[in-house]
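To the wet lab folks,

You asked to see what we're planning to order before we commit. Fair enough. Below is the target structure as tokens, and below that is the sequence we designed to fit it. If anything looks off to you, flag it before the synthesis order goes out.
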């Protein structure tokens, strides 16, 4: 794996050991352009997550009334991610041709309109027609979401090239805030005003943010590159990092169609209080993300071990979430919330360092720096996250229906276990290979040779 030479088209990326100094300097004086970029990205993180998470407390039960089974509900959640997967790959590849700012704003507009449309689905007749329109509207929402998020990742990495993990981690506060406020707000509005109001209200909020971001967000221009997704994803390290993204997203997506039903049946909580249980995961994730991002930028050599340990902890937590029947432990509400808190923290440990690790791997393998590469990495990240978000609810809904939540969550944790072990073995093998290569380049001097050298010096 070679690094880029000075004759490349783009500027050289600063070495990792200079990152902390650059980070401190940049964090002390944000430019107006960087500040507007952060505000715009925070708005899409917050609005998209709050619109996404309001479904959790009441939609599964509402869909069951309309004739949808647990598996169908899982597929409705999952189809969003499947469309997001394919769209992210396409949009990431054509980011420079479309324009990052236009893609960002257009994605927000589509997402806001479709959220409002989702609020009138209760008027659709029960059965196949309701289910069909649910799939159609979720697919449209996925296109808008993919456009906005792919563009936002690229714009952030362009505006903050030296401390992307810190900035992304800090902005995850708004992602977590959306996840925190979505379920209780959705549950409250649903109980107070019915099915339509949560979607119409939040859709209008997103549409209001569209002209605001059109004015604030800077425009970034870039020359299209000839690099492809295939060249990037076929790098062994990137392939394993994609598995990490996929596994974490699958574990998180599994909770969407299953957790609210489990809480309602197991702990007998009303829909409004079900949203509060989601706080454990969302709060721990959003509060720990800035710290984990700062740690990832200041100590880049720790990224790999953050990902490995985070994946293994996530696997253990999903085994305890039910808990798995083999443990013969009765599920308690306090224990359930505690495990969710640990899941939120462990997801942050694994997810935050992945983006800068993929970028670093691309730089080491000769990819040119620029918005075109950032589009590829952003699209790949969003696509792998979406693929996991499809498999999680789809497989989760099926397993929950056949085996129950306790066994389903334990099996779902196997994704995180697999990725943690795979990336851990890769990093150990890589360290061993580098150590062997270093020892071959600098062979130890034997005693006889050392004596001869000392004699010649004297």
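Sequence we intend to order:
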């Amino acid at each position: 794996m070679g690094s880029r030479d000075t004759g490349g088209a783009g500027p050289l990326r600063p070495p990792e050991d200079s990152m902390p100094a650059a980070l401190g300097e940049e964090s002390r004086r944000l430019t107006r352009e960087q500040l507007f970029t952060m505000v715009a990205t925070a708005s899409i993180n917050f609005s998209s997550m709050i619109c996404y998470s309001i479904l959790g407390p009441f939609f599964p039960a509402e869909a069951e009334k309309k004739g949808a089974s647990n598996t169908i509900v899982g597929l409705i959640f999952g189809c969003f991610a499947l469309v997001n997967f394919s769209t992210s790959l396409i949009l990431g590849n054509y980011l420079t041709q479309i324009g990052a700012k236009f893609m960002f704003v257009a994605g927000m507009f589509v997402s806001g309109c479709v959220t409002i449309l989702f609020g009138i689905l209760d008027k659709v007749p029960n059965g196949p027609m309701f289910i069909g329109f649910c799939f159609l509207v979720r697919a449209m929402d996925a296109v808008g979401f993919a456009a906005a998020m792919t563009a936002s990742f690229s714009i952030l990495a362009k505006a903050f090239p030296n401390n992307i993990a810190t900035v992304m981690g800090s902005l995850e506060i708004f992602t977590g805030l959306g996840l925190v406020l979505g379920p209780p707000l959705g549950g409250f509005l649903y109980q107070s005003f019915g099915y339509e109001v949560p979607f119409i209200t939040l859709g209008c909020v997103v549409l209001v943010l569209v002209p605001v971001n059109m004015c604030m967000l800077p425009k970034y221009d870039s020359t299209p590159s000839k690099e492809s997704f295939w060249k990037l994803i076929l790098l062994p390290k990137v392939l394993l990092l994609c598995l990490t993204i996929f596994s974490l997203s699958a574990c998180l997506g599994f909770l969407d169609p299953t957790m609210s039903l489990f809480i309602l049946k197991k702990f007998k909580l009303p829909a409004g209080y079900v949203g509060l249980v989601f706080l454990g995961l969302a709060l721990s994730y959003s509060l720990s993300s800035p710290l984990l991002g700062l740690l990832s930028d200041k100590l880049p050599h720790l990224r790999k071990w953050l990902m490995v340990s985070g994946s293994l902890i996530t696997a253990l937590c999903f085994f305890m979430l039910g808990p798995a029947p083999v443990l013969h432990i009765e599920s308690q509400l306090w224990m359930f919330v505690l495990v969710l808190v640990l899941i939120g923290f462990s997801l942050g440990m694994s997810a935050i360092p992945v983006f800068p690790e993929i970028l670093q791997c691309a730089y080491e393998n000769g990819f040119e720096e620029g918005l075109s590469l950032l589009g590829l990495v952003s699209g790949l990240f969003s696509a792998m996250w979406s693929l996991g978000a499809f498999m999680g609810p789809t497989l989760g809904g099926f397993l929950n229906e056949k085996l129950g939540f306790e066994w389903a969550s334990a099996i779902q944790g196997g994704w995180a276990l697999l990725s943690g072990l795979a990336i851990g073995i890769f990093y150990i093998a890589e360290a061993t290979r580098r150590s062997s290569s270093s020892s071959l380049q600098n062979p130890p001097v034997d005693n006889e040779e050392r004596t001869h050298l000392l004699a010649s010096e004297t």
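Structural context that might help your review: The mean pLDDT is 78. The radius of gyration is 24 Å.

Thanks,
Computational group
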